[in-house]
Amino acid sequence: MNYSYLIVQEEGSVLSVVLNRPKAMNALNNGLLSEFNLVLDQFERDPGIRLLVITGEGEKAFCAGADIKELVELSALEMKAFLSLGQRTFRRLETIGKPSIAVVNGVALGGGFELSLACSLRIASETASFGLPEVRLGMIPGYGGTQRLPRITGKGKALELLLTGKRISAEEAYQERIVNVVAARDTLQTEVEQWSETICRNSPVSIRMIMEAVDVGSHLSMDNALALETNLDALAADSNDKREGFAAFLEKRNPIFEGK
């Protein structure tokens, strides 16, 4: 499929997506979000693809957020539709049952920061920076920033970033548990490949159950969340992946998981 706003490449079990609007700092618009949903269609239906890796074209930006030039003339109803599209897209990415990695290779502002927060993991270049500047524009983050950021870094730090609109460095984002690892620019790709290899050799069934347990369980009481964990683990125990994992352990070999 030909894309206007994305570069999409499948490499083994990994589907790589590059946000491809470098002249606009890879800003989000309706066209890009619509194409991203087509990528999610492929990611969801193809059992051979186990991981989605997302980055931005060029060296300046992962994604600078929503395209302000396209938003400035929107009516309230049009703005609601645009925000709803982004929220549905990011929530779909978050709950699709397969992991994703945001490779933040430059600035991640507004919706770009929010896109990274919707991913399972975040790997940042040492030159990356993060911010939610909507408060300086008379808006608020509209793609989940007010909800996901406090869940990741805590209410206090989240409010600091939300109320000031300031940027933080990759290192500070790491210290605040927003990103999982910071890598030098020349080792960033190697870091991503190592994480991808580690994740893709694990059981897709286990990964799907873990992601559901963490996502759904975070909204439940501890007792109900533990019950959910028990039920999901029981389902995993009846899978071919579990049988293969146990057999491989007893036979002292590496397992070959099929995601069934």
Which descriptors apply to this entry?
260 residues, alpha/beta, 2-enoyl-CoA Hydratase, Chain A, domain 1, 4-stranded mixed beta sheet
Question: What's the quick description here?
Answer:
The protein is built from eleven helices and ten strands. The protein is of the alpha/beta class and 260 residues long. The chain has a six-stranded mixed sheet, sandwiched between helices. Strands 4-6-8-9 form a four-stranded mixed sheet.
Layout of SSEs?
Layout: E1 6-11, E2 14-19, H1 30-45, E3 51-56, E4 61-63, H2 68-71, H3 76-95, E5 100-104, E6 107-109, H4 111-118, E7 121-125, E8 129-131, H5 145-153, H6 155-164, E9 167-169, H7 170-175, E10 181-183, H8 188-200, H9 204-217, H10 222-237, H11 240-250
Helix pairs in contact: 1-3, 3-4, 4-5, 5-6, 9-10
Distance between the termini: 28 Å
Spans of at least 5 consecutive residues whose pLDDT stays below 50 are none
Widest beta sheet: strand line-up? 1-2-3-5-7-10
Structural domains: how many:
2
Please give the CATH architecture of the largest domain: Alpha-Beta Complex
Number of strands: 10
Average predicted local confidence, pLDDT: 96
* Fourth CATH level, the homologous superfamily of the largest domain: 2-enoyl-CoA Hydratase, Chain A, domain 1
CATH class of the largest domain: Alpha Beta
Structural class: alpha/beta
Q: Give me the CATH fold name of the largest domain.
A: 2-enoyl-CoA Hydratase, Chain A, domain 1
- The protein's oligomeric status is single chain
The Cα radius of gyration reads 19 Å
Let me know the largest β-sheet.
6 strands, mixed
Percent of residues in helices: 40-55%
**How much of the sequence is in beta strands?**
15-25%
Topology order in helix (H) and strand (E) letters:
EEHEEHHEEHEEHHEHEHHHH
